[in-house]
Every structure is written in C-alpha cells, then in structure tokens.
Specification:
The chain is an alpha+beta fold and 180 residues long. Among the domains are: 20-51, no CATH class; 90-154, no CATH class. Helix content is 53%, strand content 12%. It has six helices and five strands. It has a three-stranded antiparallel sheet, with no helix packed on it. The protein has a two-stranded antiparallel sheet with strand order 4-5. A hairpin with a 5-residue loop joins strand 1 (24-28) and strand 2. Helix 4 runs antiparallel to helix 5 (119-133). The radius of gyration is 41 Å and the shape is flat.
Length: 180
C-alpha cells in the first residue's frame, strides 16, 4: 500500500514539474480586431492556432565560461602572490599600521582641506598622516614647495606680460612725452 502511494506521489510530482504548453489562438472578429485567446475562435470569427515554443534559454555555456574565467583569475593571482613565507614581525606591524583606521582617517583629513588652507597647514596635516601611517602617501614635492614654484611662475608671467604691454605716450608741448 505504501509503495502504491509513493508511486502515485512520484507521478503527481512528475506531472506538476513537466512544462505546460498552452494553446494560443489568434482570431479576427467581424470588425477586424485581432484577439489572442487560449480558447478556440468563436463562431463568426476566423483564425488559427499558434504553435508556442517553450521560453527557455540554455545558460550552461555562460556558466561554464564564467567558471573557466574565475579559475583562470585565481591561477593568475596565485602566480602573482609572493612565496608563502610569512612576513616578518616588523613588516607585519607596518602593514597593520598602514591598514589601520587611524591611518585612513589621517589621510582623509589631510586630503580634505578647505580651499583657503595654507600650504603650511596642508604640509602639517600630511606630516601627521605620515607619522601615523608609517609611509608617505604623497610622494613628490610638498605643498609649500608647489606653492613657491607657483608664485615664481606667476611672477615671471607678470613680468613678461608687463614687458610686452604696449606703452601709451602723450606728447606735452615743448617735446616732452609722458608714457603709461
């Protein structure tokens, strides 16, 4: 008796899981309006049954392709990774210091200056971040050095502009000229 119930249950599950193909009918009524229905066309209308293909997409190839890509990336990362030797204690401390919350906040604070911040204030905040992090996140010249270079460039540009500016001269009686 149990076997018969089990077989009946399996048959019901199989029938429920099988795809259901509905019939679709395309009909035109007397006014010429097209109607799609799952019932056959009514009397006085003309139409036909439409064969509907199952709406499925085989994604096996996409899945296999993505799995191959993931495996190749993992292999590349393992080849790039240095040997399995553990970093020394000082290196580990430096890495922890570099990845610490305090380091990230110090860098953030140094990078978010107001536009009116002086170069010495920027250099001061960057120096504090270097001290906390144990490395220099801003290689290259300091803000003060950049500011000094900008000032020199502006002075040279001003001198060039002044030297090339046309001079306007007015003659005053008696052969004297006044130039601006």
């Amino acid at each position: 008796m149990k076997t018969l119930a089990f077989v009946a249950l399996l048959a019901a599950m199989f029938l429920a899981a099988s795809p259901a193909y509905a019939q679709v009918h395309k009909c035109k009524d007397v006014a010429g309006k097209t109607i799609y229905s799952d019932a056959p066309c009514a009397v006085g209308t003309r139409g036909r049954q439409i064969n509907v293909q199952p709406n499925t997409i085989d994604t096996r190839m996409d899945w296999e392709r993505s799995e191959r890509y993931i495996r190749s990336r993992q292999q590349e990362n393992e080849l790039r990774r240095p040997s399995a030797a553990q970093p020394s204690a000082p290196e580990q401390q430096a890495n922890e210091k570099r990845d610490s919350y305090a380091c990230k906040m110090a860098i953030r604070n140094a990078e978010t200056q107001s536009t009116s911040a002086s170069p010495t204030k920027i250099d001061s905040d960057r120096g504090e971040a270097r001290r906390i992090c144990g490395f220099n996140p801003w290689p290259g010249p300091s803000a003060s050095e950049v500011d000094a270079a900008n000032r020199r460039t502006q002075a040279i540009e001003r001198q060039t502009r002044d030297a090339n500016r046309p001079r306007i001269c007015n003659s005053i009686g008696g052969g004297m000229s006044v130039c601006n």
